[in-house]
Amino acid sequence: MRGSMMDSPLLISSLLDYAATYHGDTEIVSRSVEGPIHRYTYRQALRRCRQLANVLQGLGVENGDRVATMAWNGYRHLELYFAISGMGAVCHTLNPRLFQDQLIYIVNHAADRFLFVDLSFVPILEAAADRLDRIEGYVVMTDAEHMPETSLPNAHCYETLMEQADDDFAWPQFDENTASSLCYTSGTTGHPKGALYSHRSTVLHSFSVCMADTLALSSRDAVLPVVPMFHANAWGLPYAAPMCGAKIVFPGPRLDGASVYQLLQDEAVNITAGVPTVWLMLLEHCANNDLQLEHVDRVVIGGSAAPGSMIEAFKTQHGCEVIHAWGMTETSPLGTVGTLKRKHDALSAAEQLALQVKQGRGIYGVELRIVDDQGKELPRDGVAFGELQVRGPWVIDAYYRHDQPILDAEGWFSTGDVATLDPDGFMQITDRSKDVIKSGGEWISSIDLENEAVSHPDVTEAAVIGIAHRKWNERPLLVVVPRQGATLSKEDLLQHLESRVAKWWLPDDVVFVDELPHTATGKISKLTLRKQFEGYVLPEGGSAGN
Ligand code: AMP
User: Is a pLDDT exceeding 80 seen at residue 315?
Assistant: First the structure.
């Protein structure tokens, strides 16, 4: 027997409609690419999104067409999110930090018809335009005054198009499983692959972002997503904020510590989200200038492991709670979130920290399990580790225009992360399956070693890779960026690690560098690092056999 409740489709357009009706005067504040701070309200945003939908229709965009964006976090990008998806087309966010060949591959593979671009990225597209086969026109996201001379073919000015467009547009109603947006994974091997989200998956994911046990986003919050809108939809925040009426603050192109600090202060932001690299810059800026984060109460950290030292610094120096989260482009991206349970209040600070460095616990909507090499489920005892698999309504089913099935017989998606699960549901990543160091048949977690290395006060950033070893197959090499002005020796670091990790885990060598290579999404590029250290010869007499 079917239930007899309304079958209203979960559509992205409903999020902004809601915000404009019930939180019409709540602000969206953006640091614009042109420079000044721009501010308007949800009510005004909705009006402009309707105008933009008319612009898109005028350009000839139809249902299902892919429309690409290459833009910072800002109000025009938000308008594109809602207008493109709202009218039934697919908003394809491009990561401007990708190598040119990858970018060209992605745009052509997605067969994008139009490309909206922020001023900063016009040169990137000018250099690639003659290889972007399917693009019919470009729209530069600025006003007439700032419109540059450009060699981009069929280039329009965003605000000029907007001025000519009517703001009368009725969002079409359609099946909630319709594709809404597209994001390619940065892909360390092979071509990047596209995760094609639906209206349904996006709306359900937004509910999850607002749940009290996850990020608890609400109308009482002002949220600043530092995580880019071109990386897994800024972790869904641009959708979740209108769902609950939270104020949004967009940082635009300036992600350095000083600029982010100023916006957090000026706009009384109380929740912010980003990868550890960004927080490193912010904490350093605060420490060097004796500054305090006055309004922030929650810092969401994900994308890479949040080191314990960072979680502690936010807590002790700024009174902020860190919410450590894990996810992937393929999971929309929220997968696990590390909020503590009631019973954890009784724990000591050190015991709480031990939980917070884990990547978070299972949330409603994402099933988790770990399996061994044969696909057999492993115990949830916090000790056994195996490949992490996930399943749920905002987890990928198949890559966009990709024939190969990616789910196992029971519908699980293998994440490529190696993890433990404890009885409370907390998941801890020990490695990416390809980064784990296989020493004499045992596994060494590069993430654990990195976390312990950065807990040394003179270490800014650290990465561990496996180096081929005649006897042990692989042994760890620690590559470190020392704090500016610090005098740090290999012996200091090894001594620091000795009391923190098993002896046979100790790196066989330590190398000091000025900077580490990062991927387009801000993670340390182990691939590049492994290339840099190809053929590296470890000193004799490492720690493995001791
Ligand atoms: P992406 O699809 O680019 O967002 O990358 C997803 C991958 O980032 C995951 O599979 C993890 O390997 C890594 N990742 C995400 N969040 C975390 C975290 N909190 N700690 C460690 N690794 C993470």
Answer: yes
